[in-house]
Every structure is written in structure tokens, then in C-alpha cells.
Amino acid sequence: xxxxxxxxxxxxxxxxxxxxxxxxxxxxxxxxxxxxxxxxxxxxxxxxxxxxxxxxxxxxxxxxxxxxxxxxxxxxxxxxxxxxxxxxxxxxxxxxxxxxxxxxxxxxxxxxxxxxxxxxxxxxxxxxxxxxxxxxxxxxxxxxxxxxxxxxxxxxxxxxxxxxxxxxxxxxxxxxxxxxxxxxxxxxxxxxxxxxxxxxxxxxxxxxxxxxxxxxxxxxxxxxxxxxxxxxxxxxxxxxxxx
Amino acid sequence: xxxxxxxxxxxxxxxxxxxxxxxxxxxxxxxxxxxxxxxxxxxxxxxxxxxxxxxxxxxxxxxxxxxxxxxxxxxxxxxxxxxxxxxxxxxxxxxxxxxxxxxxxxxxxxxxxxxxxxxxxxxxxxxxxxxxxxxxxxxxxxxxxxxxxxxxxxxxxxxxxxxxxxxxxxxxxxxxxxxxxxxxxxxxxxxxxxxxxxxx
Lengths: 243, 200
Description:
The structure holds two protein chains of two kinds. Helices cover 46% and strands 22% of the residues of chain A. Chain A is of the alpha+beta class. Chain A has three domains: 3-55, Arc Repressor Mutant, subunit A (Orthogonal Bundle); 65-133; 136-242, Immunoglobulin-like (Sandwich). In chain A, helix 1 crosses helix 2 (23-33). Chain B contains ten helices and no strands. The chains are: A alpha+beta, B mainly alpha. The interface between A and B is large, with 50 and 61 residues.
């Protein structure tokens, strides 16, 4: 390769990072980059500038709270039709399952159940590891109270982390979600996230999500709210905990 | 790579909604800031924010920590989503006037943050200090998705001039970035000085 083409390629790298080359120019540069280490290094450095141009915008803007609710509502819609295909995709089950159905439906059902149980157990074990990781000398464990429900609220004030563990929580009514509220000494309720029970697993665990210090609050409660959550509690309270 | 980030995105990839919400709460402001800067319309920015995070939900398993930070990955998805929307709607909002007073400096976070954050602040200042003709071509390319030819047409200047301005501006920013890499503490001192002078 002659020096001149290399120079033209390396000069194009800033425009390439900014996405300002024509499709043809970009394609030629990509081909050159596959074999030119000098241009690869040049690209790496300019790419850092490109990353900085995305991250380095000030002042920071905060999206309205309604954006969060709309996102969760859209997510709830998206999850509904995906529930059927999720298991197949997640466990590479689809093609195998179809064959098994043709050969022996009973065998298929048995294997599917075993796979699901295995995956659920693996996920539960991983989550338990997270929870166990919270269990240090500074972790507080508070009981929850609710009709027919048992569990604990784990609280680590030093790390400002909290996890809710609930046994045998059933799914909320259709188009509803469970929402956690942190309760201030004055009785104010602050949103700490929404969640669903975890399939047919006996233990549901979910983090409390807040940017504020947990020391500002004296307890938490969970209510049933419309999908996407509410600004303030509107539905039935199903459990509480104080700390 | 922040270990918390890695844990959260892996959980999102397993369709864990609680983790997704936590991810949103952590990064929504960063993503929204970029998108709003690009489209200059709060309603549209909210829609793009939502679409970008839904893409994160659908494709969380494609995130590769070896290729960059989670924040940059999120911002890349958001930028691409915004550019697609701008293309679709052919919206080309006016760029910010570089000569206007900049109260933004007063709103910058205090320097006692991470070194990465300090470098971004420094880069932001470097962008603001570019000659307007260089800053404008960079912004039209990166935030509006225009090619060099389209920028030449938009600004009514020769293509060669666009290329020169874009490259000169980017070289300046890269130089600034590399200086920060060598001495990240320097930017904190400069920023402190700028903020102090502005308060006088």
C-alpha cells in the first residue's frame, strides 16, 4: 500500500467517528482498518472523543416522572405477548420442542418442566447470592406483615441498599402491578419501584429503588397499583414493614 | 466497568424488570440529556428516551463489556434512535448559538467526582471553546446525523471547507482528551478556576 491512500484514510477517521462519511467512504475506511494498526489506534483515540461528546453534555436534564410511568406501561404491553415465546428463546427450546411434540407430547411436557425448574432454581440461587452478599454485620433484618404473607426487609444503611423478600406472593390482578413505597416519619410515601412476583417460584425478591437515603424513612409498604405505577398510593395495601 | 452495572444489565438480559427499572433510574438523566440536546423538543425527547430503553430491554443480551462501558452503550443506542427519528421526521432543530451567554457553567457538578466525569466536563468546555464554525460542523454531523456533503449544502460552503473545519475541530478535542488522560487532575483545577472567575 502506498503512503497517499493511508494518509487519506487516516484523515477521514474523525469524520468516520462522527458518522459524517458517505456510505462508500465509510466502507472503504472499514476495509482499510481491518489491516492498518496505525489507523486502528487513531480510531480508538477519536472514538473516545466521540464517547465524550455523548456523555459530556451539561447541564444534566431530568426526564419527567411521567416518562418513567409511560416506559413501564409500554414495557408491560411488550411483555404480555412475549411470555409464550420467552421460555423457548431463553432455553433454546423451540426447535427441539416442536420435534418432541411430534414424537411424544408427554415426554416434551416432562422435559420442559424440568428445564424450567432448573433455570428457575439457578436464577433463584444467583439472586440468593446477591441477597447473601448483603448479609453483613451491618445488615438489618426486619419482618414484614401482610395478610397471609411472610418475609423480610433487608436493610444496609451504610451501603444505602434494601431488599424485599416475600414468600408465596401471587400475581397481581390483570393490568396491575405491585408498587413499593418508602414511608417518611411524617407519613409521606415515596415511590421505591414496581415489581411482579417471579413466576411460580415461592420467593419473590426485589430491590427498593431510591436515590434518597434510607435513613430519611421509617418503613415501607406495598400496594397494588395500575400497570406502570402511580405517583402516590391508590390501591390496596398488601404488606408493610417498619424499621 | 462498574460491577453493579454488569450485574444489572445481566439481570435485564434475563428479563428482570426490577433490574431494568434500576437501570433506568440510574441512567435516564444521562440519556435524556443527550437526546434533548439532539432534538431540542421535550415531548420528542421523552418518546425517544422510551424507545431507546425499550431497545435496551430487548437487546440487553447483546451488551459486551469488553467493548466499552454500559453508559456509552446506552448513549450509543439513544443517539442512534434519535438520529433515526430525526431522519424520519426531517427535523433539523437550530443549533445553540455559541455566542450566547453560557450560564451552563454554573450548573456543572462539583469537581469532586470520578476522573471520567472530570474528563467529560473538560471535553464539554473544550467543545464550547471551539471556533463556532468548527463546533457547528461537528454538532451537525454528530447530533443531527448529517454527512459532510449535507453539511456543505446546509451551510452553503464548499465540501473541502467542511472537511477542514471538522478535522481541525476534532483534532483539538482529541488533544484536549489526551492531555486529560495524562493528567486528569489538571481539568479539575482549570474548572475550579473558571468557576471561581465566573463567581467574581
